[in-house]
Amino acid sequence: MASRDDIKFLSNPNIGSRKKKYCRFRKFGIKYIDYKDKDFLGQFVNEQGKVLPRRITGNSLKYQRKVAVAIKRARHLAFMPFVTDLYK
Predict the structure, then answer these.
(1) For the chain, what is the domain count?
(2) CATH code: domain of residue 48
(3) All residues at 6 or more sequence positions from 83 whose CB lies less than 8 Å from its CB, including other chains
(4) pLDDT-flagged residues of the chain (< 70)
C-alpha cells in the first residue's frame, strides 16, 4: 500500500483547507480592551474605518462587543477617525 509521501498530486491538497480561527482574547487571556490603544484597535478596523465582523476577525461574541464599544469610545474621544481614506 502506498503511503501519502509516495502519492503525487496534480494540485496542492492543502488548497481547500483553512486555518482554524480563534478568539485571540481567550487564547492570550486578555480581559480588558483599552480604548486608548489605537494601534491594537486598528487591527479590527478596515481601510475605510469600518469595524470588521466576527467571521473575519475570529473573535467570540463577548469580545467582539467589547471591541466595538472600545472603538466607538476611541472615535468619540478622537483617538480614532470615524471615516477616512486608507486608515492603515
Answers:
(1) 1
(2) 4.10.640.10
(3) 48, 49
(4) 1-9, 11-13, 16, 86-88
Enumerate residues 6+ apart whose C-beta is below 8 A from 24. 30, 58, 59
Task: Give residue for cell 472603538.
Answer: 71
Considering the chain, what percentage of its residues have pLDDT values greater than 90? Answer: 61
Domain annotation covers residue 52:
yes
Is 2 within a domain? no
**Measured between alpha carbons, how far apart are the two ends of the chain, in Å?**
53
| Rounded Cα gap, residues 14 and 54, in angstroms | 24
One-letter identity of residue 2: A
pLDDT value for 36: 96
Rounded CA separation 9/87 (Å): 42
Q: Which domain holds residue 64?
A: 34-88
